[in-house]
Amino acid sequence: MHHTMHIQLDKQSCTGCQLCFSSCVFGAICGAEYPDIDIEKCTLCGVCMDSCPSDALSLYQPQTIQTSSPVVDGDAIWVLVEIHNQTIAPVVLELIGEATRLSTQFKVSKTVCAVVMGEVDEPNGKLLTAYGADLILCIIQPSMNQLFEEHASAALTFLASTFHPSVIMVGATSFGRAVSARTASLLYTGLTADCTELRVDAVTQNLLQIRPAFSGNLMATIETPHHRPQMATIRQGVMKLIIPDYNRLMNIKQVRMENDLPMIHATMLANIAVQATQSITSSDVIVAGGKGMQQAANFQYLHQLASILGGQVAGSRVAVDNGWIGYDCQVGQTGKTVSPSLYIACGISGQIQHVAAISGAQTIIAINCDPDAPIFRYAHYGIVGKVEEILPQLIASLQQIV
Amino acid sequence: MIQIVFVKQVPFSTKVKMDPVTHTLVRSGVRTQVNPYDLHAVRAAIEVKDQCGGTVVVVTMGPPSAVAVLREAMMHGADEAVLVSDAAFAGSDTWSTSYILSMVVRHLGGADIQWFGKQAIDGDTAQVGPGVAAQLNYPQITEMNQLIEVDEHSVTVQKVTDYGYRVVKSGFPVVITVNKEANQLLSPSLNDWLRAENAEIRTINASSLQLDMSKVGLSGSPTRVKRIELPSTKQDIVMLTSAHELAQVIKNLRK
Q: Rounded to a whole number, what is the distance in Å from the CA of B197 to chain A's nearest CA?
């Protein structure tokens, strides 16, 4: 008998149906009739407990551990607003759109609230409202520098402890990731990074947060059952904007933060803006190359094709690691997530890290010499063949007909 | 100056194999390595030590087998290594991990700089560095891509932002997370290797950390994995046979 936490079996209830055997993706459950759990392989993910029709599997926890008491679940979904040079980060409006969709999945629909550090100007207030915000909450603290991650986290923590939102969504920008992680740590609540899908559990009303896990080989559904708020970061391009309605009534509430801000913080000495080249995330057509392109020279075909279609060229991790294209143009879990209307994958095998980042594309076309390449499982149109043969022919045909 | 570098053991390849029959992850015999970002954090600490002196301690939380990553980090110049290991920590999410590591910092008496890699390549969350900073109420600098200046009282670095770069300065203690561009790794010498292989590694378990045990492990973690599944695939692909046919399809799509 183990005295640390583990999955335990109630032999009285077990019917020997073995459904749990196949539920375990780690292969930790086997046995002749009744399940035998290999604690070396078990990750305590709990999937087997859900799979058991007779509730024979449960989590053994030592007596010293208590489960946390229920917490206040508020009636709002918050979206943290990131503003740079008076411009709202594009991901923010996408998240507000997603919040309006999520709101209606709750039994009692939630208020969609945009949270702004400091004051909001009229045009931005109208924009947030048109894209779905029911309320704009502005937090005012005269000594706050909203660029300091420590200040922004302290302000968001104060606001969340005062108003108890059910959900806080944050754009997975460099700033958003750092602020959400610090805030979740201060609030003792869960934070799921880079969610690719959000849903509401019809029974428990918990937020179901879906993200790639185990190096992107599997999709995990994660929830925060006993802590609030339920926090999630989402990358740009994953969620869809709603059609803006500029007739909606703008509703702004200012909250003064009485607490002091943390004295210690990293001081900014210089802020260097780098002129961004047009980002692949905003491109309607993307022509991407991977390992199968074989050499830098073959990327000329991608540039020609992109130019005919008015699109941009991107690459997989291998293409970037080989120096065939810059890191700004990397599509994948460690690169960018894109949702163009057309994505043409050339010589890309379709590892899940890559595929997860293009799931928002309307149409995916795959060109690959390996008929068994995983990319063909995700693409809408496919052609088997060498990219260096197909691309020149395709370019020639398109030049004639487009 | 005392510096702590937190390192994580991750799978050697992110291409984890699936068993085609049982649809389970093939985990046995999976080689592990130090999270690549973490080695740049070790290098940054060594660069600071070269200027200010002191001690660099590497810390990892994991099973007993994680000593391998501590030795690898020591090969890259760390002076001391600490393994934080306890069966009660199994299933800890990023919140619980941050909590445990912050208590490790307290247990070790604190450091001037606590270094982390920007993110781990297996989970890609980038949450534990800021999480530890929050628990300790330390300032945080995320995504350092250049160490500019350091002395006994402060450190100045350049960090990446969504719009370019920012130069920031902080006093101690501070938490800094490091990008791969921050420095170049040096190849360890035979002497480094021998020193690392023979170094004594300290182990800390839950009982020495004065933890609130209701906040660690699976049951203390705010997040739960509810379901794990293979990514959904769609079956209705249209296979084409010629580039000309493909051109027609693209033309129709772009109408």
A: 26
| Assigned architecture for domain B2-224 | 3-Layer(aba) Sandwich (3.40)
Which residue type does A100 have?
T
From chain A residues 119-138, the ones with a CB under 8 A of any chain B CB are none
Start-end of H helices in B89-185? 94-107, 128-136
Rounded to two decimals, what is the model's pTM? 0.82
Confidence of residue A1 (pLDDT cuts 50, 70, 90): very low
Pairwise CA distance, residues A115 & A98, whole Å:
15
Give A355's contacts in chain B (Cβ within 8 Å): 231
What SS3 class is residue B97?
helix
CATH number of this structure's domain A282-401, picked from the four choices 1.10.1790.10, 3.30.2130.10, 3.40.50.1220, 3.65.10.10: 3.40.50.1220
B15 touches chain A (CB under 8 A): yes
Q: Which residues of A touch B134 (CB under 8 A)?
A: 153, 181-183, 185-186
Using a CB–CB cutoff of 8 Å, tell me whether A335 touches chain B. Answer: no
Q: Are strands B154-161 and B140-150 parallel, antiparallel or unpaired?
A: antiparallel
Q: Which two tokens stand for residue A112?
A: 């969609």
Contact A266 B168 (CB under 8 A): yes
**Shortest Cα–Cα distance, B194 to chain A (Å):** 31
Q: Does B149 touch chain A (CB under 8 A)?
A: no
Q: From 3.40.50.720, 1.10.10.10, 3.90.190.20, 3.40.50.620, which CATH number describes the A76-256 domain? A: 3.40.50.620
Q: Model confidence over A290-311: pLDDT tens digits?
A: 999 999 999 999 999 999 998 9
Any A CB within 8 A of B161 CB: yes
Tell whether the model's pLDDT for residue A64 goes beyond 60: no
The CATH number given to A6-60 is 3.30.70.20
| Cβ contact B161–A175 (<8 Å) | yes
The answer to whether residues B104 and B111 touch, using CB atoms and an 8 Å cutoff, is no
Cα B189 to Cα B33, B192, B196, B199: the distances in Å are 19, 5, 11, 15
Looking at the predicted structure, is the pLDDT value of residue A225 above 80? Answer: yes
| Among the partner residues A262, A334, A381, nearest to B137 by beta-carbon distance | A262
Is a pLDDT exceeding 90 seen at residue A31?
Answer: no
Cβ-nearest to B162 among A174, A208, A225:
A174
Burial class (CB in 10 A: 0-12, 13-18, 19+), B29: exposed
Query: What is the pLDDT, as a whole number, of residue A66?
Result: 43
Q: Does B60 lie at the interface with A, CB-CB under 8 angstroms?
A: no
